[in-house]
């Protein structure tokens, strides 16, 4: 139970640090910033908790007792952090699926024509914010009139291709 509590607390601490930083000033490359925030917060929190375990005997009651429990706590914290970091882009920018659901809900029984759908969800809503995110994360760069993948973008793309290959999914989205 102590591992569950500590792991959840470490992930929550990372989230609170994220919120505090974003309220002051949102970093340009949010993905890599989130990863750095969570890893540093979880590492610092683990070190502080371990120090408390050894320095303050009264703190031992609420902390994991064995090394395996500590490993489970840190693994849980990292897993929760990874889940948040992976879902953050859908929160940060408009999710196409959520936009569609909102549009269909707003139009009710009258529905939405294909041309109206394309007009409301054009490039300004769906494409440009994602291209800007890729530029901010340095996954692509603008070279004259063209966008080109950076080495970081190629590596990420290769990871997705490998994952889709493992799943025997088509290469497209």
**Helical fraction:** over 70%
- C-alpha geometry: elongated
Q: What count of domains describes the coordinates?
A: 2
> Based on helices, strands and strand pairing, what is the structural class?
mainly alpha
Taken in chain order, the helices and strands follow as HHHHHHHEEH
Strands of the widest sheet, in order across it, are 1-2
Tally of helical runs: 8
Q: What's the story with the biggest beta sheet?
A: 2 strands, antiparallel
Q: Roughly what is the average pLDDT, rounded to an integer? A: 88
Explain what the structure shows.
The protein has 173 residues and is mainly alpha-helical. The protein has two domains: 2-92, no CATH class; 140-173, no CATH class. The protein contains eight helices and two strands, in the order H-H-H-H-H-H-H-E-E-H. It has helices at 2-24, 30-55, 67-92, 96-107, 114-120, 123-126, 128-136, 151-166, and strands spanning 140-143, 146-149. The protein has a two-stranded antiparallel sheet. Strand 1 (140-143) and strand 2 form a beta hairpin. The chain starts with a helix and ends in a 7-residue tail after the last helix. The model has no long low-confidence stretch (mean pLDDT 88).
């Amino acid at each position: 139970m102590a591992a569950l509590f500590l792991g959840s607390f470490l992930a929550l601490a990372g989230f609170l640090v994220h919120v505090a930083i974003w309220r002051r000033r949102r970093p340009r490359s949010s993905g890599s910033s989130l990863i750095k925030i969570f890893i540093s917060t979880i590492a610092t929190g683990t070190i502080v908790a371990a120090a408390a375990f050894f320095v303050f005997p009264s703190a031992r009651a609420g902390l994991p007792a064995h090394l395996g429990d500590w490993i489970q706590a840190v693994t849980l914290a990292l897993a929760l952090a990874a889940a948040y970091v992976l879902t953050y882009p859908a929160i940060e920018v408009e999710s196409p699926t959520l936009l569609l659901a909102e549009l269909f809900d707003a139009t009710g029984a009258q529905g939405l024509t294909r041309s109206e759908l394309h007009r409301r969800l054009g490039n300004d809503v769906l494409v440009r914010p994602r291209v800007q995110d890729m530029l901010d994360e340095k996954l692509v760069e603008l070279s004259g009139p063209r966008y080109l993948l950076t080495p970081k973008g190629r590596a990420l793309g290769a990871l997705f291709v490998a994952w889709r290959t493992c799943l025997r999914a088509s290469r497209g989205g």
